[in-house]
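FAQ: What does the model actually see?

It sees only this:
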Amino acid sequence: MKPFLSVIIPCYNEEKNLKRGVLDEVEAYLKKQSFESEVIIVDDGSSDNSRGFVKKYLPNHPRFKLLENKHVGKPLTIRFGVKKANGGIILFTDMDQSTPINEFDKFLPFFKKGFKVVIGSRGQKRTGYSLIRIIGANVFRLIRQGLLLKNIIDTQCGFKAFKSEVAKDLFSRLLIFKEVKKTKGWKVGAFDVELLFIAQKRGYQIAEAVVNWEDKDLSKKKKYFKESKEMLTEILRVKLNDLRGKYD
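And it is asked to produce this:
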């Protein structure tokens, strides 16, 4: 039977989060649901034991699958999962489960109303964020809203869902993939901004649902200032692409 939901979880050096039991959290939620589901873990060339941990988990959890890839960064990692997803709705969520999987319950009413894209929003409250990250997030939001997506509060929450055909359409149109260079470390950037901007240009209605979020990431792979620079650079790139008519 075709699953109702495909959950895509990118994985890059997530061993500490995996040992915390995040996969059991996902499984416990999905097991209670009346709909069929699949979980696609896409490993982004992890150098720790993330792959080994997931492989040991798979035999007793048939809804889970593992895709193994070379290291290319989060945007391409998610795209690999989107291509392989079979569900009617595709949700991607972070391995650390800072937004717990049960927050998907808040998305369902929007899909029933006909929305094709539903995204999680942390609002302006960031539990577990340092003061500098809170200030940085607000500055980023003001710049991004001034240039792109003025009606969306939070583009960067890693908890987003799309109707399957919409996800596959949007990921096929991202220009960021034409500019991919060799990746070192955990590259995230602001691909979400381009994704949502193209969705808006394509006429898809976007619903933003406030979700519970608390920083639970144990992997310590994020470099805040480097990532912030990449995000601002990519916002400008998307704006320039739009001015040049590349999204028309």
